[in-house]
Amino acid sequence: METRHADASVVTLWRPTGPEELALVQASGWRAWPPRLPEQPIFYPVLNEDYAIRIAHGWNVPAHGVGYVTRFQVDANFVARYPVQQAGGETILELWIPAEELEEFNRHIIGKIEVVHEFRATSVSGEAAR
Question: pTM score, two decimals?
Fold first, then answer.
């Protein structure tokens, strides 16, 4: 489910996010995820784009009026320390990064975090616009 590059040194991950978190990512120069809030002990990037889309569309849009899917790459050797967590069905796969390890995780991001999808609530059809 995860995307590895030909040299297997990089893993591509996705993260569904709302506008507040995305603003903090932008403030970092698109290079780091913000520290977790006290009620957020785990940072959980997901291993496939479809799952990230479902969360952004089904959770972030209703909660914030907009949801984003981001994509970023991380050093494969570093993320190998985190076992893949199956949070539901066969394709519901996440990494669980403890909040106290997020700063180190950020240091292993390769390149920039990019927004690959944006969903907004619509009042006409009740479906989120893509």
Answer: 0.85
Residues with Cβ within 8 Å of 64's Cβ and at least 6 positions away in sequence, in order, are 18, 19, 20
Residue (of 49, 104, 37) closest to 74 by Cα position: 104
Distance CA 31, CA 119 (A): 22
Q: Which of 32, 10, 24, 5 is nearest to 105 (CA)?
A: 32
- Going through 1-130 in order, the beta strands assigned E by DSSP cover 3-4, 10-17, 42-43, 66-75, 84-86, 93-95, 97-98, 109-120
pLDDT per residue as tens, the chain (130 positions): 444 445 579 999 999 999 999 999 999 999 999 999 999 999 999 999 999 999 999 999 999 999 999 999 999 999 999 989 988 777 789 999 999 999 999 999 999 999 999 999 874 434 444 4
DSSP string, 54-76: HHIIIIIHHHHSEEEEEEEEEEH
Gap between the Cα atoms of 21 and 28, Å rounded: 11
Q: What amino acid occupies position 28?
A: S
| Domain spans, the chain | 3-120
